[in-house]
Design goal:
132 residues; alpha+beta; HU Protein, Chain A; 3-stranded antiparallel beta sheet; 4 helices
Length: 132
């Protein structure tokens, strides 16, 4: 059970909120649209399947204003273990997400109100610089 100060900090954004699971996401989208939860769930499943298939084929999915999902290739390499022996690690593909600047700015706007360990907040503005 959480105490009152922890609940206040959580509401203010100081502690991480509970993760939004698929069931909750579907319910929230259904509330904001004229679709039923079943329709939203079916649409979400379809979207996730298309994204997964595209990434598995080596492509990328870009949602303008949100971000880009892609599978990046990692080449095979040699690593040295704690026992000082060399081991060969096979190449693999890794799913990645890159947020667009508009999404990063929206998230950062909320981060200004997160208190530090002393309960103080910083109002200093931070600029986002695009990676080259």
């Amino acid at each position: 059970m959480t105490d009152v100060t922890e609940q206040a900090r959580r509401q203010a954004g100081g502690l991480p909120r509970a993760p939004l699971h698929k069931r909750s996401l579907v319910a929230q989208v259904a509330r904001r649209t004229s679709l039923t939860r079943a329709q939203v769930g079916e649409a979400l499943e379809g979207i996730l399947e298309v994204v997964a298939e595209t990434m598995a084929a080596g492509g990328a999915v870009t949602l303008v204003g949100f971000g880009r999902f892609e599978a990046r290739a990692h080449r095979p390499r040699s690593v040295r273990g704690l026992d000082r022996k060399s081991y060969r690690v096979a190449g693999r593909r890794v799913a990645t997400f890159r947020a667009y600047p508009s999404l990063r700015a929206r998230v950062q706007a909320q981060a200004g109100d997160i208190p530090d360990e002393r309960g103080e907040t910083c109002r200093e503005q931070r600029t986002l610089t695009p990676r080259g």
